Amino acid sequence: MLKRFFKKDLVEAGCDEAGRGCLAGPVFAASVILPAGFRHPLLNDSKQVTEADRNKLRPYIERKAVAWAVAMIDHTGIDKINILKASFKAMHLAIDQLKVRPDLLLIDGHLFSPYFGIVHQCVIGGDAIYASIAAASILAKTHRDEFMIRIHEEYPRYGWNENKGYGTAFHRLQINENGLSPYHRKTFGICNDFAETE
Question: Could you tell me the sign of the dihedral formed by the alpha carbons of 37, 39, 44, 45, in that order?
């Protein structure tokens, strides 16, 4: 069972990102403050939840949360500052938008760039431990998937409706055969190699 809080007497916001390891598209981040009694039997780390269940959870979380926000840094921003800094920046932008100011940020992972004025706690595997981080992972993932499906309509050859921009064998094959789209991250893996030859 997911833990409901790290420190019971504080207003906590869970934070997580989606799309960090992709070859194309933005990185999304979400920040979520849940009410004390929040529960949902399907809630877990987004990677452990089916797409159908993630899509059921998203409106429930958005409706029941005390506050939530989603932000993104696009592929050009990622190429400029690197994916780690872009992930942190997206989290900061999401926190900026929260309608309730938290006392503590629970961050999925072991690194974070401090957010001025709010203490944070990094939690490795936090999206499978704390409900607020799991909720953030669901929102970040579903909002990003929705974006990737939308841009798939512009560039259907890469299969983003299925791979969401991750470096599957099919996606890499399409890059080799068709080159990069405007949404590819030119500093990533095969994209970096391909960009150097353009």
Answer: negative
Task: Name the CATH topology of 12-197.
Answer: Nucleotidyltransferase; domain 5 (3.30.420)
- Of 56, 46, 23, the residue nearest 140 (C-alpha): 46
Residue ranges of domains in the chain: 12-197
Question: What angle is formed at CA 102 by the lines to CA 96 and CA 108, rounded to 5 degrees?
Answer: 80
* 31-45 pLDDT tens trace: 999 999 898 988 987
Q: Residue 158 — φ and ψ, nearest 5°?
A: -85, -10
Q: Which pair of tokens denotes residue 35? A: 């009410």
Helix (H, G, I), strand (E, B) or coil at 137: helix
What does pTM read for this prediction? Answer: 0.95
Residues 6+ apart with CB under 8 A from 118: 95, 101, 102, 103, 104, 105
Residues 6+ apart with CB under 8 A from 44: 2, 127, 128, 134
CA–CA dist 107, 87 (Å, integer) = 11
| Residue pair 137/46 in contact by the 8 Å Cβ criterion | yes
State the Cα–Cα distance between residues 64 and 43, nearest whole angstrom: 13
The length of the chain in residues reads: 198
